[in-house]
Amino acid sequence: MKADAADAITAAVAARMAGVQAEKDALKYAGMLTAESVKGDSAMAVMNAQMILDAEMAANQAVMDADDALDAAMMAKTAAEGLPEDDAERAGAIAAAERAIEEAMTEKDAAQAILDKNPLQADGTTPTTEVDSLRDAVAQVKDANKLADDYPMMPSAIGKRIAGEVMTAIAAATPGTNGTLAADTPRDGIMNDAADIGAMTWAMIVGEDDVMMKRLGTIDNTGALTAGNAEVSVASLEGMTASAVTSTTLTDGTIDADGGTTPGNYKGIVGAVICLGGTDGCKVTDGKLGAGWYFSPASPMELYVANPDMAGMYMVATMYATYGYWLTYTDGAASGVTLYSNTTANKANLNLGQAGTGDDATDVTARYSGSAVGISKRGDNSGQFTADVNLIAKFALAPTLRGSISNFQGGAVGSNWSVILNETALNASASFDTNGTTAGSGTPGVWTTQGYGPTPVDHDGDSTTDPQNQRPTGFHGRFSANFGDGAAAGAYTTRADD
Questions:
Q1: Which CATH number fits domain 321-496: 3.30.450, 1.25.40, 2.40.160, 2.60.40?
Q2: What's the predicted TM-score (pTM) here?
């Protein structure tokens, strides 16, 4: 019987803890009901709202479970009192049951208090706008921000609200204006096609498992380290030839200056060679670096490709495009969307003209394919999408580009969505950023495109003539489109088909 009383206490404590967890869950998701908190994903907001309602149910269940535990404790006392007066266990069993009843009542009251904590109250008496109780959280779903006095904001209504905000943002999108990708720009909707050319970061080249973070300071683009508390990524240079990573002479022997640094170059990647020492200091033996030497890149997120002219070396990757979007917000509500596409490759001098010269000159058709990413709204849903992009370029006296976007994937797209990128003229003389129109199943939208490719190359061997422009490696740009049941805005990149 003492065991029954102990079990009742355990059950009551578990019930109260379940209530505590329910309140934590509700408060967590209460801050994730705006377009900003879910990055425009209405389905995620609906899920978060439902999690709050589930937490409310769990808190109610916790009170019922605590009540069951109290009943079990009372039954244990009744059973103990039914023992014979001369039973040696009787008094102890009754005492244990009474303690269990007291504990269970305390735990039940605590579980009930979680449900009863007044909405938008800091201490039960002072009103506050802070969401700090289960009721506060539930009010964000059931009561607050009503669409009408008699229509509370249930989960689906919250999703509908966010989808409406996103639609407003898409309608205001301006594909002809390229965004500025800053250090603090959200990266959730930013992609690139660097993987198509085998581009890697320094960490990927050395092996991400071998990279550590150290608070050493900052490294400029010459490889000079300025000491400080900023974290930098480092990897061991143990076993590498000293002269291969730095022009500074590191003679055989022990360099005992922990923290000592010199500009370096790891397989063509600029950075700093740093002595982190350790018990053995920084040794150079037979021209090889010991375990105390490390390298840190100046630009850890820079992308590199294998240098075709120097085996085992790397160079900065340029022949790729970065593209995407990010929403902007006003008080948590989506109010605009910025579209972005760019490349560091050559854009100023490209060959868009006919092949051959004179009577042998002919138009050339080339196909490009790639992908798009953006934000869309369909029905009461909104969120990120991806899609396939196919372009057809006609290199001619009057070069043009046309294409389509199809195979939209995401939680707020139509299975039959397709966008026609109406033919637009390309500027054959220099750089270009051309505007065209799009045709979905709704009103026309806008698309832009810009080509990129190799820098001019001297193919004719004549030093008196200018290097010859090359065909575009790819095209990137931005677009908006409207459909009978929704709209989309995004950015894309393509690369020439083999």
A1: 2.40.160
A2: 0.83
